[in-house]
Design a protein that fits this description.
alpha/beta; 433 residues; 8-stranded mixed sheet; 5-stranded mixed sheet; single chain
Length: 433
């Protein structure tokens, strides 16, 4: 599961008590604008709660008056304003979506022998009912669930179940038990591949109301396509110069397959804008490409979501010395808060940036405790970075607000947001490394 959280920027309007200075209230994310008026109140009674389309889908207005509070909003919104849940359903380490007619997805692709050498078999697949329940739960909170089916790479689990879908079938392929990726790519010249993905996309349409399907597209080296006889013949027939043109054609055919269901694609951005098509949305995730991706995607007519891993990958350790997989950078709470999605560029240069995306790779996190530990409180910093203009943000004020929210979460959920080097839950595979 690559990415759990996504937020799209908007304008927040809020009116607060004049007796409470702007650096004392505890709203996360920081409102885009506050208006201080000479009023006071002794109660937080909700006097009105109404929809107001003129505010925009993701904006709200909170007015505190002597008699109580008036709330108006453009939609139902989650507490920290996360309005997209990006659910990564397939990868090398497991396939989690049931697809009628393809039983080996559950019997083979959803199971792996162990995780990071821990010797413990792992497996599982969501049911349609469980996924629909998740969609309904999120919808009640104004959150859209966007499923991801990664193509053409990140597919070792699929290759273990259906090796015939690949350029060079390996009957002995196993579901990957460690992090990372291989070079296995589905073969775009095999009709059974397109029949399979048509069934996958139909299942997604039946489960997810979202019109978006994320197709991954990342870390897909085309060396095997270069060697594959079927792919070589196809390039020759179409007059393609190289495998990059073949990748662009592959994405175009996938997009057309989605379009039959009224769905549109999104992709991870790999630096080569030429393999995508104008109007599509890509996520900049590589640290060394995020800043450069702003100009490149604008020139190519692409929409951009900022997910630079140095700020936004929440499976990374958050305190120096915490458990690491050897290649991860330490991403502190302050580092997350310092994210400027525009990297200092002007609104004219960054109008195509559609939002900010925070990622948590579950293959690195063995259970819910670890997920919550690493995601929070850094997700709160990403929320503020995505929703709040740079000129209203303050690190010192944010730290105080986090302390307030720690007390709130502890009281309401009995969960402590304090983070120290020592209090992270132990990883069961630590003694195996």
């Amino acid at each position: 599961m690559k990415h759990l959280l996504s937020i799209f920027a908007g304008i927040l309007l809020c009116a607060i008590l004049p007796s409470v200075a702007a650096d004392k209230y505890s709203i996360i994310p920081e409102p885009g604008r506050t208006e201080l008026k000479p009023q006071a109140t002794r109660t937080l009674k909700l006097l009105s709660d109404k929809a107001e389309a003129s505010l925009g889908k993701d904006a709200y207005r909170l007015a505190v008056t002597p008699g109580g509070v008036h709330l108006a909003s453009g939609g139902l919104m989650a507490y920290y304003k996360f309005n997209k849940l990006h659910l990564h359903l397939t990868d090398n380490q497991g396939w989690r979506l049931p697809v009628p007619g393809y039983p080996r997805l559950e019997s083979v692709a959803s199971k792996r022998a162990e995780t990071f050498g821990d010797g413990i078999p792992h497996g599982g697949m969501y049911t349609r009912e469980e996924l629909k329940e998740l969609v309904a739960y999120c919808a009640e909170r104004g959150i859209e669930v966007i499923p991801e089916i990664d193509v053409p790479g990140h597919n070792e689990a699929l290759a273990a179940a259906y090796p015939e879908f690949f350029c060079f079938p390996k009957p002995d392929m196993k579901v990957r038990t460690v992090a990372g990726n291989s070079k296995e790519l589905v073969c775009p010249q095999k009709p059974e591949v397109w029949k399979f993905y048509a069934a996958v996309f139909k299942e997604l349409k039946d489960i997810f109301p979202s019109k978006i399907v994320h197709l991954g597209g990342d870390e897909a080296p085309t060396e095997l396509w270069e060697k594959c006889p079927l792919c070589r013949q196809a390039r020759a027939r179409a007059g393609m110069r190289d495998e990059q043109e073949q990748m662009r054609a592959f994405f175009a055919r996938m997009t057309a397959l989605l379009a039959k269901n009224g769905q549109t694609p999104q992709f991870w951005y790999e630096g080569n804008a030429g393999i995508y098509h104008p109007g599509e949305t890509v996520y900049a995730w590589r640290q060394d490409q995020a800043r450069q991706s702003i100009d490149k995607t604008k020139k190519a007519g692409l929409n951009l979501i900022m997910a630079s891993n140095e700020y936004c990958y929440l499976d990374f350790p958050q305190i120096q010395g915490q458990y690491n997989w050897g290649w991860m950078r330490t991403t502190t709470l302050r580092k997350c808060y310092e994210l400027d999605p525009a990297f200092g560029k002007s609104p004219q240069e960054t109008g195509h940036i559609r939002g900010v995306h925070a990622a948590a790779w579950a293959e690195h996190l063995p259970d819910l405790n670890h997920l919550l530990y690493r995601v929070y409180p850094r997700a709160m910093a990403i929320a503020e970075a995505g929703w709040s203009p740079m000129d209203v943000r303050s690190w010192d004020n944010f730290r105080r607000k986090v302390a307030d929210h720690r007390a709130f979460v502890l009281k309401r959920f009995n969960y402590d947001l304090e983070r120290t080097k020592e209090n992270e839950p132990p990883f069961r595979w630590e003694n195996k490394k």
